[in-house]
Design a protein that fits this description.
Mean pLDDT: 83
Distance between the termini: 35 Å
Helix content: 25-40%
Strand content: 15-25%
Shape: globular
Structural class: alpha/beta
Oligomer: single chain
Length: 171
């Protein structure tokens, strides 16, 4: 499927998730969807390192990229960079990582998002630590999250607003 994103046509070939609701959304749109358990390692709350799992994720990434002839790989957070960076390097495809949160130094180092071809953040605060770590302004972009203020100003239009109103739940 394709979509118009800020005037650019984006072709989505395959989506790989460990999140059931997101996977269900892409399946509902008839997109190739791969769903599996994904792990990152060496962070405070990570599971113990498993060479088998790591290389399984790395191998699966290479397979998805080559099977679907992906031109640009997008990671929706820094964690998958642990296996996407080497997979993209080996198959010669660029990796773009989109950051929605500020990562502590330890996480930035062990996840390896610095090695992505482009680090995109939703705010200056999300990319500033990477600039402080030595990435250049050419290595990063800021694309703010946006909201539809008009819709949010009408409580009855919010998700569940009509249902809540019909049940007498305050908006």
């Amino acid at each position: 499927g394709s979509s118009d994103l800020m005037g650019l046509w984006v072709l989505i070939i395959a989506a790989w998730y460990n999140c059931v609701p997101l996977a269900n959304e892409t399946r509902a749109r008839s997109l190739t969807t791969i769903e599996s358990e994904l792990h990152s390692y060496f962070q405070w709350t990570s599971p113990p390192f498993s060479m088998k799992q790591f290389f399984g994720q790395f191998s699966q990434a290479r397979l998805i990229i080559t099977k679907h002839d992906i031109d640009v790989v997008h990671s929706n957070n820094a964690a998958p960079c642990q296996w996407l960076v080497p997979a993209c390097f080996l198959v010669g495809r660029p990796l773009v990582v989109l950051l929605h949160a500020i990562y502590l130094r330890r996480s930035r180092v062990v996840l390896g998002a610095h090695f992505a071809n482009k680090v995109i953040g939703v705010s200056r605060a999300t990319v500033q630590p990477y600039l402080n770590d030595g990435l250049t302004p050419a290595d990063v972009e800021i694309i703010p999250n946006t909201i539809d203020a008009e819709v949010l100003s009408r409580p009855e239009e919010r998700r569940g607003g009509k249902e809540r109103k019909s049940r007498g739940v305050p908006l």
